[in-house]
């Protein structure tokens, strides 16, 4: 009878753990979804606020910047004062900011609200993995981290689909209001079911200088990359870009110096001396810059050149994102039996093959029927690597540093995405312009008109060049078909180049995993 009672208590505890996982997964899903969900609402917001796309860019950038800058800070606070407390506070902040954003009377209020919302999103994201690791143990930990990884993998690509549906049926405020009821549910479940972790740093001093330096350095670097993305024709030596990037790197160097000297540093730099951990953050960076960054260009291909609507694009991108849901729990179980090192390495190589398949089919008549095999392989990569990466990142990490380990993985994944969007965009711009400059002069039309069209196409860039080439005004020209063919080919050349670059990035990530990460036997020796 005593044994039956113990089994019943164990079962109840297990159910509570899975409900707690649901609460944390819901918070993570909302936080990451809001990175991309706004994209499809921008055309509607332009009309509502009577503004331009340039001014609206800060609705996206405010979230991206603040989110990346505060990830490590929220991780450290969670390690010091209890991860549940900081996670819960972040969740409440996110819900309140979402409600304010939905009611925003002006663009300024919305921009500020997005920044505040990002602080909440960073807190939820940075502490979720550490909370799961401390709320589960043994084989259940691998499964739980696998499920959380599947949520992470599916959340960002779901933005266009969910955002498109909400905007078309309920208006742009709905993309923020939808967070309120689900956020309240997550708050209740977190309060009741999530177990608190010890306050490891209650006797330590807060490393305020380290937090300030990390925030300033990351802000300058990421903002510099955003400026470069917004002005692709500016040189890297342009003062507005060079000052931010060089200044940011200098501040981060000072941050490393300070962290090596203070008694209670924000980051234990010894973590970067561990070959295995370095391998995991390289993979996280490769995943962000290869897979996640590429999704923005894949979306543009489908909407701007193939002609799918936002919802049609979102539905087709389920081919990529659904694998995170399908494979996450399975991979979580397999990671308890097989080497994370080889699962990640093989997973990254699968993504490389997917990119190669896509590069072979890009052309004037490309459609989803041509793209889906490569997209499936990309999705399988995300579905395998993300859950295993979370588990691998926690291996050998002291309990009091799990939050920071989680935060660093997320920082490198987010930083990789930002660098990838800029880097891949520059590659595409270069190939696009080179093709236009080479072939447009061959069109037999008046020089003044030709120069005007070329300037308009280059100014519009690869994303919007299709709109210019197929505009009603140009369609009346006897040279329209020839110009349109050149523009589409120029876009395709750029798309092929950045696709092959993404293939190289994920393959490098796979090699890094194979060379740096621990094998199964090495991991067991540490336990």
UniProtKB/TrEMBL annotation:
Ribonucleoprotein is among the record's keywords: no
What Pfam families does the annotation carry? MFS_1
Q: Where is the Major facilitator superfamily (MFS) profile domain?
A: 20-521
- Main subcellular location: membrane
Q: Where is the protein found, in the record's own terms?
A: Cell membrane
GO molecular function terms noted in the UniProt entry: transmembrane transporter activity
Q: Please name the SUPFAM superfamilies in this protein's record.
A: MFS general substrate transporter (SSF103473)
Task: Tell me how this protein sits in the membrane.
Answer: Multi-pass membrane protein
State if Oxidoreductase is listed as a keyword.
Answer: no
InterPro entries assigned: EmrB-like, MFS, MFS_dom, MFS_trans_sf
This protein's UniProt keywords: Cell membrane, Membrane, Transmembrane, Transmembrane helix, Transport
Q: Which Gene Ontology terms of cellular component type are present?
A: plasma membrane
TM spans, by residue? 18-38, 58-74, 86-110, 116-136, 143-162, 174-194, 206-226, 241-258, 278-297, 317-335, 342-362, 495-517
In terms of superkingdom, the source organism counts as Bacteria
Concerning PROSITE patterns, the annotation shows: MFS
**Which PANTHER family does the protein's record reference?**
MAJOR FACILITATOR SUPERFAMILY MULTIDRUG TRANSPORTER MFSC
Q: What protein family is recorded?
A: Belongs to the major facilitator superfamily. EmrB family.
Protein name (record): Drug resistance transporter, EmrB QacA subfamily protein
Originating organism: Agrilactobacillus composti DSM 18527 = JCM 14202
């Amino acid at each position: 009878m005593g044994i039956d009672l113990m089994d019943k208590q164990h079962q109840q505890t297990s159910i509570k753990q899975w409900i707690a996982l649901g609460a944390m997964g819901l918070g993570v899903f909302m936080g990451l979804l809001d990175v991309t969900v706004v994209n499809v609402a921008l055309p509607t917001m332009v009309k509502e606020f009577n503004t331009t796309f340039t001014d609206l860019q800060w609705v996206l950038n405010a979230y991206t910047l603040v989110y990346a800058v505060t990830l490590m800070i929220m991780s450290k606070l969670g390690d010091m004062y209890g991860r549940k407390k900081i996670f819960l506070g972040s969740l409440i902040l996110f819900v309140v900011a979402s409600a304010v954003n939905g009611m925003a009377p002006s663009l300024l209020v919305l921009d500020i609200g997005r920044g505040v919302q990002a602080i909440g999103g960073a807190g939820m994201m940075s502490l979720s993995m550490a909370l799961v690791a401390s709320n589960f143990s043994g084989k259940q930990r691998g499964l739980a981290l696998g499920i959380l990884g599947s949520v992470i993998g599916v959340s960002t690509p779901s933005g266009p689909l969910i955002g498109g549906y909400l905007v078309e049926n309920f208006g742009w405020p709905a993309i923020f209001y939808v967070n309120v009821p689900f956020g309240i549910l997550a708050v209740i479940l977190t309060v009741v079911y999530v177990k608190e972790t010890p306050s490891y740093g209650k006797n330590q001093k807060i490393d305020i200088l380290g937090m300030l330096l990390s925030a300033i350095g990351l802000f300058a670097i990421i903002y510099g990359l955003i400026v470069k993305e917004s002005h692709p024709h500016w040189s890297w030596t342009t003062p507005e870009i060079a000052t931010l990037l060089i200044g940011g790197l200098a501040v981060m160097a000072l941050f490393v110096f300070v962290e090596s000297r203070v008694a209670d540093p924000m980051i234990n730099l010894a973590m970067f001396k561990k070959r295995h951990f370095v391998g995991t953050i390289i993979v996280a960076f490769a995943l962000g810059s290869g897979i996640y960054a590429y999704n923005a260009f894949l979306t543009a291909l489908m909407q701007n050149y193939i002609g799918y609507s936002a919802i049609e694009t979102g539905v087709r991108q389920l081919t990529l994102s659904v694998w995170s849901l399908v494979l996450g729990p399975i991979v979580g179980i397999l990671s308890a039996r097989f080497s994370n090192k080889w699962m990640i390495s093989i997973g990254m190589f699968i993504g490389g093959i997917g990119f190669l398949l896509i590069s072979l089919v890009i052309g004037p008549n490309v459609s989803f029927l041509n793209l889906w095999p490569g997209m499936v392989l990309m999705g399988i990569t995300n579905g395998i690597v993300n859950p295993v990466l979370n588990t691998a990142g926690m291996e050998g990490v002291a309990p009091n540093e799990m939050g920071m380990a989680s935060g660093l993985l997320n920082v490198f994944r987010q930083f990789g995405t930002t660098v990838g969007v800029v880097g891949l965009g520059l590659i595409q711009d270069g190939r696009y312009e080179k093709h236009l400059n080479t072939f447009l002069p061959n069109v037999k039309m008046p020089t003044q008109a030709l120069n005007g069209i070329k300037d308009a196409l280059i100014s519009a860039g690869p994303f919007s060049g299709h709109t210019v080439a197929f505009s009603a005004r140009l369609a009346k020209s006897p040279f329209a078909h020839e110009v349109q063919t050149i523009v589409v080919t120029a876009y395709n050349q750029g798309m092929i180049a950045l696709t092959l670059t993404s293939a190289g990035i994920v393959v490098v990530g796979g090699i890094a995993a194979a060379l740096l990460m621990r094998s199964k036997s090495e991991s067991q020796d540490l336990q």
